[in-house]
Structures are given as C-alpha cells and as structure tokens.
Amino acid sequence: MAHKEPLDPRKKKPDTPPADNPPNADAPPAEPQGAPEDGAPEAQGIDEILAEEDFAEMAALKSELEDAKDRALRLAAEMENYRKRVARQVEEERRFAHVPLFRDLLPVADNLGRAIEAAEKNSSGAGLLEGVKLVLQQLCAVFEKYDCREIEALHAPFDPNLHQAVSQQPSGEFPPGTVIQVVQAGFQAHDRVVRPSQVIVSAAPPEETSENEE
After folding, report:
1. What is the pLDDT of residue 35?
2. Which of 81, 143, 155, 156 is most buried, taking the most CB atoms under 10 A from its CB?
3. How many whole angstroms separate alpha carbon 107 and alpha carbon 102?
4. Is 202:168 a contact under the CB 8 Å cutoff?
5. Helix H or strand E segment including 36
C-alpha cells in the first residue's frame, strides 16, 4: 500500500491563468451588428406627414395673403375713385354756386332792357336813358365776371340744349331750323345753361312745302 505524503499547508496550488475578459452577467446582451434600429421607418413616416402638413399650411397662408393683397388693391382703387368723384362734385358746386343768383338777376336785366327800349322811343328822357343803360352795362359786367355770358342764338342753327322755340315762321332767306329772332336772351355759366334763349325758328316756305309733298 502506497504511503501518501501529508499535505504541506505551506505549499500553494499552482496558479491557474484567469479567463480572458469573462462576460459580465449583469450587462445586457449585445445587439447584432448591422441590424436596423427599431422605430426608424415609423419616425421617417411621421416626418414626411409633418412636412406635408407644413407645406399645405404654407400654401393656404400664401393663398390668404394673395386674397388680402387683392382686396387691399381693390379698396385702394375704390377710395381713389371716390376721392376723384368728390373732388369733381366740389369743383362743380364751386363753379356753379352762383347760378341761382344769376337766375334771380336776369329778370332785372330784362326789365332794364325794356326800360331802355321804351326810353329810346321818347326823346324827352335822354338823361334817364343814359343812366339806365349804364346800370345795365354794370349788371352785365358782373355776369361776365362770374362767367355768366349771353348765348349767341341769332342766325344760329336751332339747338334744343340752348334754345327754347316759342314759334316757327316761314322764311326763304334762312334754311329751316335757323333762329331768325331772339325773343328773350339766354345765358349760360361755363357749360351749364342758366336760362335758354327764347327764339323764333325758321320754317320752309309754303312753296317748298307743297313741292316736297308732291
């Protein structure tokens, strides 16, 4: 029977080499290399949806901005037209503000003219006649100062915008439709008629009338 030597506690067991980098039991398992990240396609889809929504919102805002600009331009044009229309009305009112006064004063001038005609037939009132003529001249000068002038009607073609025919008279001297006598003078301020001229208009002679009928 073989004799075993007693173990010497002073002798150490030979050191065993440590294992290379033993795995840590607490560390999570490593993911395989090259595997796609979870959720990447989903995140990319959300970004695309958000980009489309932003594009649609920007397009809507651009359309609203264009509409607002168009409304602003139309409003500015309407305001400019309104300003011009008001300015025109004010100018017309300023130019024709004296028309009612002219209409009230014209009968006075008519009466002065009749007084002159009557005085010319009576030589005894020569001094009075000159005074009345002077008053009438002054009154006519006031009319002309405010651009109220007599309408030139005698021997002119009849114009219903300027003349008022009180009768017709056959005439072989003037063509039909010609003013051959002014019964009452007419006046206009600028281009507005204050009072039309009362006139007698020529008509075709009876011989010409019968020939035309034949």
Report:
1. 47
2. 143
3. 9
4. yes
5. none
The predicted structure's pLDDT at residue 117 = 81
CA of 131: how far to CAs of 138, 139, 145, 193, 203, in Å? 11, 13, 21, 30, 40
DSSP H or E segment with residue 165: strand 163-170
148-214 homologous superfamily: Head domain of nucleotide exchange factor GrpE (2.30.22.10)
If DSSP codes are grouped into helix, strand and coil, which group holds residue 184? strand
pTM, two decimals, is 0.51
Contact status, residue 149 vs residue 190, Cβ threshold 8 Å = no
Residue 5 amino acid letter:
E
Closest Cα to residue 203, out of 163, 178, 176? 176
* Residue extents of the structural domains in the chain: 148-214
- Residue 150, classed as helix, strand or coil, is strand
Helix axes 99-120, 126-145, angle to 10 degrees: 160
Compute φ and ψ for 201, nearest 5 degrees: -110, 140
Task: Give the tens place of pLDDT for each residue, 144-167.
Answer: 888 888 999 999 999 999 999 999
Give the 3-state secondary structure of residue 23. coil
**Backbone torsions φ then ψ of 96, nearest 5 degrees:** -110, 20
Determine contact, residues 169/180, Cβ cutoff 8 Å.
Answer: yes
Find where tokens 């009075």 sit. 128
